[in-house]
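Q: What changes when fe (iii) ion is included in the input?
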Amino acid sequence: MADIVGAYFTSHVPAIGGAIHRGDQQDPYWKPFFDGFVRVHQWLALTKPDVAVVFNNDHGLNFFLDCLPTFAVGAADQYHNADEGWGLPIYKPFAGHAALSWHIVEQLVTDEFDPATCQKMQVDHALSIPFELAWPGVDAWPVKIVPIAINTVQHPLPSAKRCLALGRSVHRALTSWPGQERVVVIGTGGLSHQLDGARAGFMNPDYDRFCLDNLARNPDLLTRHSIHDIVRLSGTQGVEILNWIAARGALGPFATEVHRNYHIPISNTAAATMVLNPA
Ligand code: DHB
Ligand code: FE
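A: The predicted holo structure follows.
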């Protein structure tokens, strides 16, 4: 079976890409956020994953409002980054692990999930920014990826309960995989933020703390809120917490918190970073 080395979670605010590009990591605005990655880099150097299963959301790059799968699994040998409109640099391509993708799809369908399977898929800032943060300046990404996109964009959105169950199904796939790959599970986006509408700029540190405090030990507690409760509590884009919840499910039954960083604001977002060990 795969060796699940742990889980890494981070916000994926596009402006982070601009800060990296300008070398602003020590700038007073950015430092409290980037300082949270020293520990992530140490942990990755120790755990040495070679595959990443990445739960993220597409922001209108592959899927638009006219055609939006609830769950979509990438099953390609390569994924290209593109910018859906933020003016970000285009990051180097990501090698896929198509065989593992199909194994995960088989398990999901066995467990009565019905994902879209994408043998062609682009990845946006929801994947590239967390990778730039985790492995800054590398010539080639050290992991192959299996990207899993969750609809956090157009209602009806999947429930937190459904996303945790999806992640748990992916965990079953990883435990029945015949290979020995060292897998890191990644969840991106959040925490609370709302980019538009009457509550633009809304953030909610109390709800964010509730999520961070319970993600490792009591992830089922995060499923007690309906999707509309989550929108109220965390903002229209704060629902990206669904990616974290799914990733937590994929980590497995047990988890210990290794590291967390929380900083308000980065752009319009309450930014958070977390690392969990699988025990
Ligand atoms: C911001 C945050 C996001 O998660 C995103 O996808 C786009 C923008 C922001 O805070 O600016
Ligand atoms: Fe986002």
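Observations recorded in class: Residues 12, 59, 126, 189, 237, 240 surround fe (iii) ion (ligand 2) (CB under 6 Å).
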